[in-house]
């Protein structure tokens, strides 16, 4: 099951509200089989709560081009999440969590966010990672040696 609400709120269908409120409504709608959720450019603002953790079938989450300020680290560990796009949330702050072995992420887009800190060595546990876009973020330090454990991946870093 897929739910695409791209630019829904910015097209005048409803007034913009907090990201937490909208995502709580979606998560409580008993969409247990929801695999794709796209809320690209919906003018969502504020903090993302943990309500989406109830969507255990979610494999693709696109919250790009919003005004989100906080995204819980637990969300990176949704068991089936393969694509996570938080790019162009220019007020979004945070750091990457530790990634346990078996994490499903294949594509991680954080470009033009205020994510900072070191990239954890456990990034090497993302064996399926093919795209990792962190251009214009605040990461520092060397790339972990564990990047060498990854097979076919593409890293985008621009300052």
UniProtKB/TrEMBL annotation:
Task: Tell me its family.
Answer: Belongs to the RLP family.
Question: Keywords for this entry?
Answer: Cell membrane, Glycoprotein, Leucine-rich repeat, Membrane, Repeat, Signal, Transmembrane, Transmembrane helix
**Mind giving the lineage of the organism this protein is from?**
Eukaryota, Viridiplantae, Streptophyta, Embryophyta, Tracheophyta
Q: Which GO terms describe its cellular component?
A: plasma membrane
Cellular localization per UniProt: Cell membrane
**Chief location of this protein?**
membrane
Locate the Disease resistance R13L4/SHOC-2-like LRR domain: which residues? 27-134
Q: InterPro entries from the entry?
A: Leu-rich_rpt, Leu-rich_rpt_typical-subtyp, LRR_dom_sf, LRR_R13L4/SHOC2-like, RLP23-like
Q: How does it sit in the membrane?
A: Single-pass type I membrane protein
Tell me what this protein is called: Disease resistance R13L4/SHOC-2-like LRR domain-containing protein
């Amino acid at each position: 099951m897929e739910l695409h609400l791209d630019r829904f709120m910015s097209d005048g269908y409803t007034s913009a509200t907090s990201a937490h409120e909208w995502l709580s409504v979606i998560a409580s709608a008993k969409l247990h089989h929801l695999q794709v959720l796209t809320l690209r450019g919906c003018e969502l603002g504020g903090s993302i709560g943990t309500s989406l953790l109830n969507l255990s079938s979610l494999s693709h989450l696109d919250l790009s081009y919003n005004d989100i300020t906080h995204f819980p680290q637990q969300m990176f560990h949704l068991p089936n999440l393969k694509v996570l796009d938080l790019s162009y949330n220019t007020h979004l702050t945070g750091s990457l969590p530790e990634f346990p072995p078996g994490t499903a992420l294949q594509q991680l887009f954080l470009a033009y966010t205020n994510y900072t800190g070191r990239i954890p060595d456990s990034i090497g546990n993302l064996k399926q990672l093919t795209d990792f876009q962190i251009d214009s973020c605040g990461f520092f330090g060397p790339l972990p040696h564990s990047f060498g454990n990854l097979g076919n991946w593409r890293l985008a870093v621009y300052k």
